[in-house]
Amino acid sequence: MIEETKLSAECKYQVLVADDEPAAAQMIEKIVNTRSNDFYVKGIALNGQEALDFVANNYVDLIISDVRMPMVDGISLVTRLQENRPEIESIIVSGYQDFEYVQGALRADASDYILKPITPTKIMEALEKVNKKIDKAYYQRRNKYLKMMVKGHKCAEIADFNRVFWSDNYYVAVARKNGLITRFRGGANREIFSEQQEQMIIYGRDEQEMLFIYPQELVYTDYDSMMNRQYNKMLEDNSFLTMVVCEEPVATCDLADYVYRIYQTMDRAIIIGKNQKLGLCDNVVKEETNEVSKEKKKLLLEISTNNLSRLNTEIKSLVDVLGKQEFTQLYVESTIRHILYELKNNDMLTNWDEHWLDDIFCDVISMDDLANNVIDIIDNNLKKTNSNTCCDKKSLYEDIVGYMEKHLKDDLSVQNVCKAKGISQATLNRLFRQYGDDSYKGFLTKLRIQEAVKILEDVPSMSIKDVAMQVGFNDQFYFSRVFKTIIGKNPSEYTG
What we know:
The strands form two sheets. The chain has a six-stranded mixed beta sheet, sandwiched between helices. Strands 8-9-10-7-11-12 form a six-stranded mixed beta sheet, with helices on both faces.
């Protein structure tokens, strides 16, 4: 008969011991429960079938199983778990030193193999080894759920979700620098995750964004004051910031819904050039005003009559009104898309590219810059203009890359680079989309991390903070997250 023990609330991982000798099982239970801070024996099964029945109805992270048991032996047990519950790790225990048993355990993907007689040292060494594997698996599953929540996808594996997000309640907030995430480049965005050992969870769909998920146990001060400090810390020149804060803690069962809602609120609230800190229920969406309607009609009339002489003037006038009345980026995007479609439908453009919207809006920080980007895109694609036909775009791109490589420590904002090279933001974005196979910001990040790798290899004794500063990162923790995203290891692991 299976025996279930009382689970310690302080331990991380739950263990099932499977052994047909009760005394042996109880000894393993005592060693684990008294010596490990990370594992606790949740149950004891006296044969392999009882173990399978137990895991079918209970959450288990690790099985410590004797190799010889009635009904279902230890190796068959591990093999079947790999087929149906591959997330469960296993340690095989046996008094048989025959090599075929060792091979059988390894073929069944057991994490470790312990020979009797069992000692506390052997058990603890095996637990330390498997602990690292389970930590990594939890981290990977947590990141999978983060991506699902942001997209609004429901999680069917509720028990696993509740184990990965272990706290009863969480505080949630999201912050984004500059405008909406690019939507037309496909897989060009680079996700950022907090590191494995961090209990505070951070996720970003790209480098401009941070989703904060704080276990309630880690919030030792007033939450609103804490987020105000975070908001002020993220404010920078040459960018604007939108933060949405869920003011009250959220139960784990509601976490996915609230994460999706907070993203929806942020996406609907972004106003180009405006710093904002909002609550989950705040709404900044407004109806089209008479002044905006009038400006749109004037511009569309110039297009319908093929009158190019006032086209740029009317574009600037419309964008200026949209900016002064603080319409959201989503509304501005729909307006600009309408203008481009009308130009296309009136056969005034040489070609059409949906990526233009990314070129226009990516990293723009003011409505003046936005108007210039729209005009630049149109001027370079009108049928009656020969703009850029004599320009060596590839040479210009290579010149910009060379400039970036020489100034990695400096402020290489889009605005500063465009000013240094005398080009528009739309042109910069278009060049990197065409030749760099990445956004400008993404390409810059890769350059900085590549330089960081060289520094770490040449001067491994340099502090992580100093390396970060050398390549243009002001926050060493953010640098470490980005470094791991690109290289696969954090800087300290790389030098180690």
